[in-house]
Amino acid sequence: MKICRYNEDRLGLVEGDHLRDVSAALEKLPAVRWPLPVGDLLITHLDEVCAAAAALREKAPVVPLAEVRLNSPVANPSKIIGAPVNYQLHIDEALRDVDLHQNRKVLTIETAGPFLKSVSSLVGPGDGVSLGFPDRRHDHEVELAVVIGKPGRHIPRERALEHIAGYAIGLDMTVRGPEDRSARKSLDTYSVLGPWLVTADEIADPNVLDLEILVNGEVRQKSNTSRLILDVQRCIEFFSSFYTLRPGDIIMTGTPEGVAPVDPGDVMTARIEGIGQMDVRVRRD
Ligand code: MN
Fold first, then answer.
1. Were 141 and a residue from 98, 159, 172, 192 both cysteine, which residue would form a disulfide, CB within 3.0 to 4.6 Å?
2. In this predicted model, what pLDDT tens digit does every residue of 136-177 receive, in sequence order?
3. DSSP 70
4. 143 C-alpha vs ligand 1 centroid, how far in Å?
5. Distance 174 CA to ligand 1 centre (A)
């Protein structure tokens, strides 16, 4: 199932070039009051919402995807976890380019560990990316994004796939400079998730997916998740040794080679096999 959030908190089932408006399925979510539960409510109750969406599907209004504004499929993650340097050819380019390494030692991912991006940086493809710091270089990073469904800490790799709600395309936008990763990757709009959530049952093996990003129609990054240094299961195992993974948490699994600057006016087109494609506009506010 492909579940999207669109326009003003509406819920859609994506089918080809259109969606079915199944917003009534959101009535399955419990009413909450302060203090809110940690984690994303929709993802916590995804099974009930999907069952309700399936029941509504036949009579649900059809809306062309071209006519909607797509939001991040996860509204309220408790954290966005980034995997640094998780493709060898990206490490190689980071070692060659002073803009990327900034004279810092390039560590292995097992040594560096995960980093966190602010949850306030999260947007959907329809929101676009707004560049900060006009004098700096800003790069795209296309990544397979894993959305956690079942909570867990110290999850062994053999059980890791059971904890996944689904997958999406992630853009881990980055401003170059001397600061820590979490600062440079947490600007407003610097985490893009979309175009929708593909439920885990649709992707038998997340470690064999083609991924790419084009800027203004020109291919910049093109690889396959089989080249991940830590594969999806190991990311879950490793990162859950640091913190409890909660429903709605997003893991951006790392970016392949070809990271490059974007400028206001650019259009990024990101694709991942089995998930889909999204166009994301770059601007400066
Ligand atoms: Mn990244």
1. 172
2. 999 999 999 999 999 999 999 999 999 999 999 999 999 999
3. B
4. 7
5. 8
233-247: string of b/e by CB count within 10 Å (b at 16+)? bbbbbbbbeeebbbb
Query: How many angstroms separate the alpha carbon of residue 146 from the centre of ligand 1?
Result: 13
Q: How far is the CA of 115 from the centre of ligand 1 (A)?
A: 9
Q: How far is the CA of 35 from the centre of ligand 1 (A)?
A: 32
Q: Record the tokens describing residue 174, joined without a space.
A: 């980055």
Quick check: 189 pLDDT over 90?
A: yes
Q: Provide the pLDDT confidence category of residue 281 given band limits of 50, 70 and 90.
A: very high
Decide: 191 and 120 in contact? Cβ < 8 Å: no
217-239 pLDDT, tens digit per residue, is 999 999 999 999 999 999 999 99
Q: What is the spatial distance between Cα 209 and Cα 249, in angstroms, rounded to a whole number?
A: 21
Q: Give first-to-last CA distance, the chain, whole Å.
A: 35
Residue 171 near residue 255, CB atoms below 8 Å: no
Half-sphere exposure of 27 (CA within 13 A, CB side): 7
Q: Give residue 63 CA to ligand 1 midpoint distance, Å.
A: 33
- pLDDT tens column, 238-254: 999 999 999 999 999 99
- Report the separation in Å between the CA atom of 173 and the middle of ligand 1, taken as the mean of its atom positions: 7
Averaged pLDDT, 37-62: 97
According to the model, what pLDDT value does residue 106 have?
Answer: 86
Ligand 1 centroid to Cα of residue 71, in Å, is 20
Instruction: Tell me which long-range contacts 29-38 makes (C-beta under 8 A, separation of at least 24).
Output: 36/76, 38/78, 38/246
